[in-house]
């Protein structure tokens, strides 16, 4: 049985040889030079390893506290960017679905409002120079409040 991929006439043999002459060096460079030297990660941003959080650091371990603060600031930047993307999606939906955007963009609005609330719970009222310890204390105070009075915003229980 003859090989189906083999050229059948002189014209096909000519174009096949020209193709091999032009394509073979490109394939060789790609396989032998470029691919072995590429980073194997599918992401194009720098990945940092997760470090211990501020509650896992000793009080006199300056290196651990500094790493926790840097991790906190990176997390804040990522969360702020996610919030910005959600806001842009909602605004684009509002512009695109102009007359009846109230019903079509409601899921995006709810998703954005929930993310904004969660962002404010974690990072709000810390100021521009808020650190991991301040956020940890804020979380602790919120948990104490909720244990004593119920969810924040529901008012104070009278026992």
From TrEMBL:
It is a peripheral membrane protein. It is found in: Mitochondrion inner membrane. Pfam families: NDUFB10 (PF10249). InterPro entries: NADH_UbQ_OxRdtase_su10, NDUFB10. Keywords: Electron transport, Membrane, Mitochondrion, Mitochondrion inner membrane, Respiratory chain, Transport. GO terms for cellular component: mitochondrial inner membrane; respiratory chain complex I. Belongs to the complex I NDUFB10 subunit family. This is NADH dehydrogenase [ubiquinone] 1 beta subcomplex subunit 10. It comes from Psylliodes chrysocephalus.
């Amino acid at each position: 049985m003859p090989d189906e991929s083999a050229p059948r006439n002189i014209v096909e043999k000519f174009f096949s040889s020209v193709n091999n002459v032009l394509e073979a060096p490109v394939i060789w460079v790609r396989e032998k030079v470029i691919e072995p030297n590429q980073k194997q990660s599918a992401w194009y941003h720098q990945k940092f390893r997760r470090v211990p959080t501020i509650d896992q650091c000793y009080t006199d371990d300056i290196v651990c506290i500094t790493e926790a603060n840097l991790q906190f600031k990176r997390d804040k930047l990522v969360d702020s960017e996610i919030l910005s993307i959600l806001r842009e999606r909602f605004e684009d939906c509002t512009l695109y679905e102009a007359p009846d955007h109230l019903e079509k963009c409601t899921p995006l609005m709810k998703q954005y409002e929930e993310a904004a609330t969660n962002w404010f719970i974690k990072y709000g009222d810390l100021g521009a120079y808020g650190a991991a310890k301040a956020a940890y204390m804020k979380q602790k105070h919120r948990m104490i409040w909720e244990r004593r009075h119920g969810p924040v915003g529901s008012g104070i229980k009278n026992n």
